[in-house]
Amino acid sequence: MSDRWVMERYFGRQFLLWFLVFLGGLAGIVFLFEVAELMRRAVGHREIGLDLVLTMGLYKLPQTIERILAFVVLFSGLFTFWRLTRSQELIVARSFGISAWQFMRPALFITLCFAILNVAVINPLGASMNAKFKALEMRYFERTPTFELTGAGLWLRQSDGDKWYLLHADHVEMSPMVLAPVTVFIYDNEERYLGRVDAPRAELQEGAWAFRDVWINMDQYPAQHAEEWKLPTVLTVGKIQESMAAPNTISIWEMPRFIRALKTIGLPQTRHRLAFQSMLSQPLLLCSMVFFAAAFALRMNRRGGVTSMIIAGIVIGSFIYTLNNVVNALGTNQTLPVILAAWAIPIVALALSNAALLHMEEG
Q1: What span, in angstroms and rounded, lies between the C-alpha atoms of 39 and 53?
Q2: Span 164-205, pLDDT tens digits
Q3: Tens digits of per-residue pLDDT, 59-83?
Q4: Confidence of residue 301 (pLDDT cuts 50, 70, 90)
Q5: DSSP state of 189
Q6: Residue 234 in 3-state DSSP?
Q7: CA proximity to 283, closest of 70, 19, 63
Q8: Beta-bridge partners for 318
Q9: At what angle do helices 123-137 and 50-59 cross, to 10 degrees?
Q10: Does residue 323 have a pLDDT over 60?
Q11: How far apart are the first and last CA of the chain?
């Protein structure tokens, strides 16, 4: 076994150790804040106990890990290379001809492996757990209407005082929002069937669904025809789009099928397409953080100023993270094409970090 292989294994173990430390530490801190926020929201809800709050916090944990992953990679890289520099190990390795590309290779490999693991395993697990969190949140906190999109169309469940309404539509039109054709099943609070309403279309107006050319079939009563019938609702087009199976509740493996279903029924797919492409581009963004950390390690080695360089690295990482969110928002608003919004910042960050590392290495 060559000396360089031994050295790379050592560097890899150091990075993996601090990667796990920062991952556990940052996830734990965010988890405590999530639990505190849930406890605040639970005030006045006697049916919500500490066990339920902790369970909901755990359901959000995979999503939390996914959200902080870029910072975990950046911090662990900075801290690993800083410790190797302070202990002179990195300086000794450099004196033996070990290039920056070689000493960062183990960290890059570990990051890439975890990024793939995140896309293939953690994301589907997190989507499933986040869907359970959303269900509990709706049940205990918000009690808002719920949606389900299947191959048989759109299903919407909402309440109005002492009744529940289950709406089904084969197709949806936007601006204004219209369900066509639409059927409404009516139940009482004990889930007993009361009747149904059928109409060729229903338009979402302010505070109500407006039905035209309606047939009302109440249980144990003869069918009645009406030119117009209104069903009160708190929904808006914005709320429907936000509540329609949020992208973070759908596994990356199921996302293409769900996007096709949205397209078939007539609902916007931009948010889900952007989430899918952003997940695919995430490995590039994470790898760019390793390159930035290595570039700052060389800077610390040559010019000193450890604290200032670490702060600069954190600032740059935060800037890239924020800029990526801004560009994603532009993609969501359809200001930018989905592919550009999802891939632009990871590619630019990777190019800039490589340029910075090359400049430090050759300079």
Answers
A1: 7
A2: 888 888 888 777 788 888 999 988 877 788 899 999 989 988
A3: 888 888 888 888 889 888 888 888 8
A4: low
A5: T
A6: coil
A7: 70
A8: none
A9: 140
A10: yes
A11: 32
pLDDT, position 147: 61
> d(Cα 151, Cα 15) in Å, to the nearest integer?
46
9, 238, 304 from 2: Cα distances, Å:
11, 61, 31
Stretch (H or E) spanning 310: helix 306-332
- Least Cα distance to 289 among 334, 320, 256 occurs for 320
Please report, as a single letter, which amino acid is at residue 271: R
The residue written with tokens 């229903």 in the block is: 202
Beta bridge partners of 230: 210
Tokens of 198: 């059928």
Residue 147 phi, psi dihedral angles, 5° rounding: -125, 150
pTM of the model: 0.75
Secondary structure (3-state) at 176: coil
Across 25-29, 87-91, 106-110, least confident range:
87-91
Residue linked to tokens 């997190």: 126
Question: Do residues 228 and 214 touch, judged by C-beta distance below 8 A?
Answer: yes
Please determine, for residue 242, whether its predicted confidence score (pLDDT) is greater than 70. no
Yes or no: say if 308 and 101 are a contact pair by the CB < 8 Å rule.
no
Q: How confident is the model at residue 193, as a pLDDT?
A: 87
Name which residue leads in pLDDT, 18 or 312. Answer: 18
Cis before residue 176, ω within 30 degrees of 0?
yes
- Quote the crossing angle between the two packed helices 61-86 and 123-137, to the nearest 10°: 130
Which residue matches tokens 């029924």? 265
Residue 123 vs residues 27, 117, 184, 275, 301: alpha-carbon distances, Å: 15, 9, 35, 11, 37
The CB density around residue 191, as the number of other CB atoms within 10 Å, is 7
Residue type, 159: S
Encoded amino acid at 140, one letter: Y
Q: Which residues contact 37 (CB under 8 A, 6 or more apart)?
A: none
Cα separation, 14 vs 51, in Å, equals 37
Q: For residues 88 and 109, what is the distance between their CA atoms, to the nearest angstrom?
A: 23
- Retrieve residue 40's tokens: 């605040």
Whether pLDDT at 50 is above 90: no
For residue 242, give every residue at least 6 positions away whose Cβ sits within 8 Å of its Cβ, in sequence order, or none. none
For residues 81 and 90, the answer to whether their CB atoms sit within 8 Å is yes
| Distance between CA atoms of residues 289 and 86, nearest Å | 21
